[in-house]
Request: fold
Amino acid sequence: MKFQAVIFDLDGVICFTDEYHYRAWKAMADGMGIYFDRTINNRLRGVSRMASLEIVLEKYDGPALSQADKERLAAQKNDIYRESLHEMSTADLSDEVKETLDGLRAMGLKLAIGSSSKNTPFILGQIGLAGYFDAVSDGNNITRSKPDPEVFVKAAQMLGIAPERCLVVEDAVSGAEAGHAGGMKVACLGDAAKNGAGDWNMESIRELLDIVKE
Ligand code: BG6
Ligand code: MG
Reply:
């Protein structure tokens, strides 16, 4: 097999927290009188919390904000987002995703997470995947946000597998760019697939079971 490992983005690939991110940013933006819509939200996919805030603030035209103000706004968004995460359970892990993960593992592939989110450990716990992956690289161990390849390069290093033997799975254009910048092939879902950002642009995550055999 061409690939020895599959590195999954989390939000929008393993579970659908992307809608919760949207609602939390929308609530924060509405509170500040900042225009925010789903088109702007698509630009936040894969992007770290503070880099996302800067994109949201492009539509802000009030008094200058200090770094402390920005941190308060990001914390406000995260508090709203975390409330949604508390509602998540193992029911938020679809059969489609779990069967695909188990199928890939049964084929001998190593499985990792490569997510920009600092909430990754909490989310994995909520959906019953704590301890499931062979490596977890997330927003807590990186200094540069996607499209920088750092999060995927670190995941490959944790696994001890060369980048060209890793397949990245992404729903964000920034994430697909990050995978390619790290020397990896990328299979896309959702928004990134619609934009043709991947080497494969999938309708269902189950397609991975065939892609890794190619
Ligand atoms: C990514 C999401 O997975 O994580 C982004 O696609 C989000 O939308 C980023 O901004 C950071 O998430 P968190 O949970 O650390 O705020
Ligand atoms: Mg994503």
Remarks:
- The two ends are 8 Å apart (CA to CA).
